[in-house]
Amino acid sequence: MRSKAFTLIELLVVVAIIGILAAIGVNTFSGFQESAKSNTVKSNCKNVIKYIQAEVMKCSLGQNKAMDGNLNCNKYIADDVATACMDALAPSYKNIFDPQKDQRVGTYTAFFPNSLSNPCNSSDKGRISIRQHRNSTTLIIECCGDTNSDLLSETLLIETNG
Questions:
Q1: d(CA 78, CA 138)
Q2: What is the spatial distance between Cα 6 and Cα 18, in angstroms, rounded to a whole number?
Q3: Taking the domains of the chain in order of start, what are their residue ranges?
Q4: For every one of its 162 residues, what pLDDT tens digit does the chain have, with 9 covering 90 and above?
Q5: Which residues contact 12 (CB under 8 A, 6 or more apart)?
Q6: Considering the entire predicted model, what is its pTM?
Q7: φ and ψ at 95, to 5 degrees?
Q8: What's the CA gap between 63 and 85, in Å, rounded?
Q9: DSSP class per residue in the chain
Q10: How far is CA 117 from the centre of its chain?
Q11: Which of 145, 147, 148, 153 could form a disulfide with 38 if both were Cys (CB 3.0 to 4.6 A apart)?
């Protein structure tokens, strides 16, 4: 009479197949995570640009303060806008690749006041740089989403009141 149980060889083959599939799945999932983090940085960069444009518009419409009170609308240049923006948004924007990398106004943040390298290197991953560029009316916003990727860069002309 023949038993209806699996043999040891059959069980080992099944375990080996499951192991191979698990290894492939873990590797693929890791790639998805890196891609999602990089896309988050790109999205954050676009949101920061829109925030700067909206807050500077408040100043041109006659408000006295903008950027959560960090920008004096009566007298400012591009450097003041960059500092006020980073101070206002620091708690909301963490470096998704390294949450405890840079500190600003007592909190860890993605904001970095100096220029970033192009292509992005591992120390700049997840950083957003906002600074005055060439003159007092121009801001440059740079973002690094992933190592060896191109730097995302946007130049904004700021209507100053300084």
A1: 6
A2: 16
A3: 9-157
A4: 567 888 889 899 999 999 998 888 887 777 788 888 888 888 999 999 999 999 999 999 999 999 999 999 999 999 999 999 999 998 888 888 888 888 876 788 888 888 888 788 888 888 999 999 888 999 999 998 877 777 888 999 988 766
A5: none
A6: 0.79
A7: -75, 110
A8: 16
A9: ----SPPHHHHHHHHHHHHHHHHHHHHHHHHHHHHHHHHHHHHHHHHHHHHHHHHHHHHHTT-SEETTTTEETTSB-HHHHHHHHHHHHGGG---SS-TTSEEETTEEESEESS---SS--TTTTT-EEEEEESEEEEEEEEE--STTSPPEEEEEE---B-
A10: 15
A11: 145
Place of tokens 């303060």: 65
Q: Name the residue type at position 22.
A: A
